[in-house]
């Protein structure tokens, strides 16, 4: 299978594209080759498909602790694994990993099983924590950590020098838009992160899903603007829906993140937490009111 998977070389950085352009559950991983060390960023199922022809990997960097980004960690049992200190607890055990999502039953048990069987999860209690601004020196190449919380608590961007490649992780610039539907996600933090990321000007932007590699700021901003706009679009649709009072359960059932009818096992808890954050945000702005306990409607001036 590895022979059918595409790659792109940018200086000392090689983008290892996953199946279908890295569409979930697949993803695009990066291999950075220095003169002293080499590292793999977010070994995905695409790396698992290449298991018979892997490059030298001295250490693993996970941009954050989600199933698709750590799916290939197990291939490198002797390589140190690094991820942000706020996400590091998730690799300690399967129980800890499940806490990141916060899924209730009947979703919890099959999801727990999928983490092991589909995404090859193996605990790494020895994982090492990095912090905002840390730099990994590889000899003639380095990788710099840029904080980008919201998707998870410790979600991080990684700037590869001197190739001037910015790995965006799950700020994936997709038509789906930002994802902040897990227990460890924050809409407010994601909005703040997007404001900072917009200002970063590099030669290449790489995403884990869908897009792959964009060259130059103009191509990046075109995709970025559409990605960011999804947040406002969801709020506009929510305000329209709240012309009449609705509960959070009704809001979740209506679907604002996923399309109605899409067979997504975890859609309901993702919708509920995502839109609860929108409701709370709109309440703070005075655009949504709690008309009665647990029931929300659009305010008169919204």
Polypeptide structure, described:
- The radius of gyration is 20 Å and the shape is globular.
- It has seven helices and 16 strands.
- It has 302 residues and is of the alpha+beta class.
- α6 crosses α7.
- It starts with 6 loop residues before the first strand and ends with a strand.
- β15 and β16 form a beta hairpin.
- Helix content is 28%, strand content 21%.
- The mean pLDDT is 96.
How is the secondary structure organized here?
Elements: E1 7-10, E2 13-16, E3 29-33, E4 38-41, H1 45-49, E5 59-61, E6 81-84, H2 94-101, H3 108-117, E7 128-130, E8 135-137, E9 142-147, E10 156-161, E11 165-167, H4 187-197, E12 204-206, E13 213-215, H5 217-241, E14 246-247, H6 248-254, H7 267-284, E15 288-292, E16 295-298
Parallel strand pairs: 4-5, 5-6, 6-7, 11-12
Antiparallel strand pairs: 1-2, 2-3, 3-4, 8-9, 9-10, 10-11, 12-13, 14-16, 15-16
Helix pairs in contact: 6-7
